[in-house]
Structure formats: structure tokens, C-alpha cells
Amino acid sequence: MTVGTVDRQLRDRAARVLPGGMYGHQNAKLLSPDHPQFFARGSGARVWDADGTEYVDLMCSWGPIVLGHQHEGVQRAVRAQMEKAECLNGPTDVLVELSELLVDTVAHARWALFAKNGTDATTTAVTIARAATGRDKILVAKGAYHGSAPWCTPGPAGVTAEDRVNVVKFEYNDLDSVRAAVAEAGAGNVAAIVVCPLRHDTFRDQELVEPAFAIGLRAICDTIGAALVLDEVRAGLRLDLAGSWESHGVRPDLSAWSKAIANGHALACVLGTDALREAASSIYVTGSFWMAATSMAAAVATISAIRDDDGIASMHRAGSRLRDGLEAQAKSHGFDVRCSGPAQLPFLTFAGDTDFALAREWAAGCARNGVYLHPTHNWFIGAAHTDADIDRALDGTDAAFAALAGADRAA
Amino acid sequence: MTVGTVDRQLRDRAARVLPGGMYGHQNAKLLSPDHPQFFARGSGARVWDADGTEYVDLMCSWGPIVLGHQHEGVQRAVRAQMEKAECLNGPTDVLVELSELLVDTVAHARWALFAKNGTDATTTAVTIARAATGRDKILVAKGAYHGSAPWCTPGPAGVTAEDRVNVVKFEYNDLDSVRAAVAEAGAGNVAAIVVCPLRHDTFRDQELVEPAFAIGLRAICDTIGAALVLDEVRAGLRLDLAGSWESHGVRPDLSAWSKAIANGHALACVLGTDALREAASSIYVTGSFWMAATSMAAAVATISAIRDDDGIASMHRAGSRLRDGLEAQAKSHGFDVRCSGPAQLPFLTFAGDTDFALAREWAAGCARNGVYLHPTHNWFIGAAHTDADIDRALDGTDAAFAALAGADRAA
What we know:
The structure is a homodimer.
Chain A: H1 5-17, E1 39-43, E2 46-49, E3 54-57, H2 72-84, H3 93-105, E4 111-115, H4 118-133, E5 137-141, H5 161-164, E6 167-170, H6 175-185, E7 190-195, E8 198-199, E9 207-208, H7 211-224, E10 227-231, E11 254-257, E12 268-272, H8 277-282, H9 293-308, H10 311-332, E13 337-339, E14 348-350, H11 357-368, E15 371-372, H12 387-410
Parallel strand pairs in A: 3-15, 5-6, 5-7, 7-10, 10-11
Antiparallel strand pairs in A: 1-2, 2-3, 4-12, 8-9, 11-12, 13-14
Helix pairs in contact in A: 2-9, 3-9, 10-12, 11-12
């Protein structure tokens, strides 16, 4: 099986009117020929591609869908706001309501500033830190993804040396490397350390933060007078509504949010402490749609639903069920796999599969068996994933393991 | 009169949870106390603030509303798409449909790449030009607004010297200054010249492009092997659907679009020629919501409606009626004013009003009399502005001129 007729026709048309036929992280050329490029709709934990094939969705639109597709509470809020307005000459009251909700929900937050992309949020946080400190240097972990602006995109084409000259790298979970990076930059030149709540780089196992690392970063920032920026874009709202490092007792000065914040509606956010409030008001950042109301109404509904329905526990339970199932299946089929990351952000690699060839073939088998997941990027669980959804997914992953084992035996 | 109770209460709440109480271009602190900060809804060419006061809308949400608020065709398309999906694991067929529509509509375009902010579009265009040429330098006009990323924001706080080191300035409508900027940068170092279709800088009269300037920019880019990037974010879709310089016979290599493209729904776009296609596919830019479907469905409906209903002629007629009325009113009240820019993007200044004090007082009078416009930034007309809307606006502007004349006499 390869993708269906509609998908192939759309790819042919796209090849004429899109650069390279597609762009960005949703480019299916990075996946197997069994993965569809085009999708049509979603409902709960299921999605349908352009040819009508159904999948259990383990990518959740690469993170944004945290409550399931077409979540009724969110959709109702969006429809109600859309009847009034989306984009006006100024914000609506929903801006204030959402800001208050975030300040009440996220432990370190005293104010909120909204944008559209995760990249907007990380870049704005960096700009605020620079304005607050009068310093230029930014420390980030090697391999970490903080967006696709010139200062942080993983693709170097079109990026100038000057775009990166103020970025200094350290190793995640290695405080000595952070100290070395501080020394390299000069302690008095460091505006911020930008870090994700866990190491979720593509092309490698995920790695939870070591509590001592999180605590140590906080101490280093305090010592050198730099801002600690927590990039919650990918993991935010799935681990702890109060902030992903709250259980470690570590609160950032600034945090960047997007993806899950409005269950698939375009929104991003920077949250900050009182100490950074003046700097945040001194910078000039804006966008034509940064005050648009429907995604803010969606965010109020999304965050409230996660909180009121204990969505994080639901995601943890579903993700744990998936991981337990995958580990048992792999063992029964004779594969040595590693499931890494929090249950809510699952990922699976095969031991010794350095070029991800096994992972790609297995992911292709999953797609053929109605499970949409990714071979080289972490997956996402949503609160809509029921036990039945996970069991259906496990049927597909088991068939994919079996096919992979059969191919192995045939080879 | 000042703003109403609801607006004041919302401002008080916002002061606690937003940096500086508000941020960005919609910050009402830049306006008079008679201008509301918060809005509730819009319909056609009218908007209502949070206290229920109605205004004829001459700002169109700072550009995005090109067909009028709650345009039925656009809203229908949005609702229909929203029932299927907004954000999935890949794009929907609407991505292809919209790309084809833009390639068919905009003369220079052979491909499209979508994003969320005008700043995304200008920054991506610059990145593509750099990837294509292997060069770093970008030429922009002094005072031009190309977005709020570090390389282009008008606010310097938090921006590093390196963010701007590759940007060289010229004077709009002055080819000699462009040649001097090329010499300063070094002809072999210039990746792109980025320019707006007209000079619509804030705090000054607008200035139409001189055809010889547009033609000369094209020739200079061809001579030095740089890309001509037309920043259509503000003026696009209001002057000429084929491209704002099409009547001058000048086609850019890349163009950046946002604002009006989806009648208020969050979308931005880079369009390019075949020669830039490979470079566009070589860069890595993306965003969690760049493939989201509803704003693309809105864009298809918006562009189709402007085309099929001759929306540009409607805007031109309404803007001309407004300008004729304003000029007659100013004369009758004894004011020396200048109406500048195309009819579809009106703006009015008072002669000798270098600190914009008269403009601010007049704009405040307009707000008190049910007309929402801006004292220091160009306004926007939409296709929904009927003769009756313009006449109602002129009633308000006339009362504002009268009040200003009375204040002058009293002073």
C-alpha cells in the first residue's frame, strides 16, 4: 500500500505551486511513502487523510491538539467568538480574561503577551531578556529546537553568521557545559539561558531533565543576572499546568508557549515575572493578528478544560498504557526498543538503529495499519485518547512489529 | 467624553496582567483618551467598542478587514472548514487550492509559502533571497515598516547591533540613494532590496511610488543580481490583485503578503518566481499553525470575492468620496490639510502640525462623533464601505473639524 489517489493528485498539484512541493515540519517527504501528505479532518483521537483513511492520531497535529480534534467545548467557544469578531481595531475582553487565567494558572507568571508562533514567543522572550539586561548573549542547548527564525532555525540556508554570533551552546543536563558556555560568553554578557523542560530533540531518545540541572540553571542565572527562559512550546500544558518544572521547584523568569495552548488554534504566548515586566513593555513586537479573539477564546476553553477535567492525568494514563503495550509488543517480536520521554510525549527508537531505518519501516507499517506516528520526532498524546483508542493503536503497532519481524526474517 | 465604563474596567484589569497594560500597534495609549482600547464586534464597515459605542471603521483592524467585518462569504467558508478541521498532521487540500489561486492571481508568482505574520513573510523573503544569492546585505528604505522582528522592528529595545548590521538604508523614491546604499553594502553583497509599494511610514504624509523609481529598483536588482522583494503586507489586495506595481510594469522576485489576505483571519504568504523556487525549498521555516486550514479557506473566499465583485473599484470609489469630502470640509472650516496616499489607504495631516497635536485632537473629535481613524498612521478602506457609510463618516469628521475650529477660536 502507498498513499491514495487523492493524496497523489494533491502532491502533483502542490509540486507546481509550492517550493519543493511542500515545506516545513509537516513535509511528508521526511516520512515513508505510506504516510499521507494531506489530511481532511479529525475527531477526538482519530484523523482521516485526504483519501478518507482513518488513523489513531499519535501526533496530535505535532502537539497543538491536546483535548482531541473538534473538542466540543473549544469549538463552542470558537463559534461563539467568531459570531462577534476575530480581528478588530483593538483587543476584546477575552485578551484580559485569558491573561488573568494564565497568571492564575502558571506559577511564575505575572503578565502575558500573545503572538502567533512558538518562534514569536521564544524570540520575544530573548528580546525581553536582552532589553532587561542590556546584554546580547543567549545560551541554548545543542540540538534543541527553539523555532525557525534565523537565530534558531535548524536549517542554515539563508542564515547569516551575525544571526548566530550571540548564541552560545551547552549540553542538556550538563551543568559543567553550562558553566563553560557562560565563561565563553562572559558572565556579564549573558542575557538569558533558554532551555526546554526536557530534551526532546529530533533524531534521538528523549531525556527528562535531571532535577539538579534545572535547579543549577536557576542558580547560575541568579548568580550572573541572566533570565531563565523555559521554552514550553512543545511540552507545555501536558506535564504540569503550573509550569513543567514546578515539581522540581524551579520557576523561570520568562516562559514561551504555543502549540497546545488553544487546542489547534493559532496562538503563542510569553509569560513573565514582575521583574521582567518593564523590559517587556519596553520592546516593540506586534503582529496584525496578535490580538485576534477566537484563538484566545479557544485558549480559555482549552486551559479550563485541561484543568477541570484533569486532562494531564488522562494523557499520562493513556501514554503509560501505550508505552506498556509497545514495550511488551517489542519484546514479544524480539525487538530491543527504548520508549523515552514523559508518557504524554511518547517516543520509540530501536536499539542500534542509528540511521532510523528500522524506525522508518516500523512507522510505515503503523501508517498502513491505521496508526499515525513519527519515526524521528517525539509523539503527542491528548486528553481525548481513550483506552479504546490506545488499544486500537496497539493493534496497529503490533501488526507493524510483526511485519518488521517478518521482513527481518525474510532478509 | 472619554471612553466608557467597561473600557476603563478592562484597562484596569489589563494593567495588572499585560506588560505596560497593553502592547503593540493596537495600544490605545498612543491615541487620545476618547479612543477606546477594547472592542466587541464588527459588521460591514461598522465596529462597536466594549461599551457598545458604534463607529464607522476607517482603520479596518489596521488593514486585515478588506471586505467588511463578518463578510458572509468569508464567514461561511470559515465555518465550513472549521467543521472539518483547523490544524492536522499535514495540510488540507485548501493549501493547494489557495496556492493555485495566488499563482493565477499575482502576476510574478509561481509558488506560495504560507505563514502567520507579515513579519514572517518579510523575514522569510529575506532568508530566501540570502539563500539564493549567498549574500548577506539587505537594503530597505529609511522609515519603512517591514515588521517587528529584531532585524526590522522600529523599537530598538532588546535588539543587538548584529541584528541590524546587514541592513543598509536608502531613501524612498530616490534612486541615487539606492545606488549609494548598494555601493556602501558592496554590489556583490546585496541579497535583496525590500520595498513597499508606496511610502506609508507612520508620522508623515504617504507618498506614491514614482514609476521611474520602481522601474529603476528592478533594473538595479537585475544588474547586481539581487532579489527585489515587494512588501505588500500593508497595501496588498487593495491596489491591484496582480501586484501593486503591475500598472508600472514592475514585477518583484518575491512578495510578502498578510493583513487583508484572509479578511481578518491569521495568514501570511510569500510568493516567488521560478528562479527563487529552489532557494525557497532550501530554507527551513515553519510554524505549528502555518498549515492551518480555516484562514486558508478564508483567503480563498476573500481573494475570490475581491476579484469577482471588483472590490478594488469599490474601495477606490469609497476612498475617493471620503477624500473629496474631507478636503471640502477642511476648506470650509479654514484648515489647510493634506490627504495623501491612494484612495484605498487614506490619510490626512494638517499643514505645519509637526507634532501631530491638531491631528490628535481632530481624531479624538472623530472618535467622539462615531468615526474611528488614526492621527499618525494611514487608514484603510474596505469593499464594504458604502456611500452611506462614507457619508456617515463625513458627518463625524465635519463635527470634528467644527470642534477643532471652535477650540482654535477659543484659544
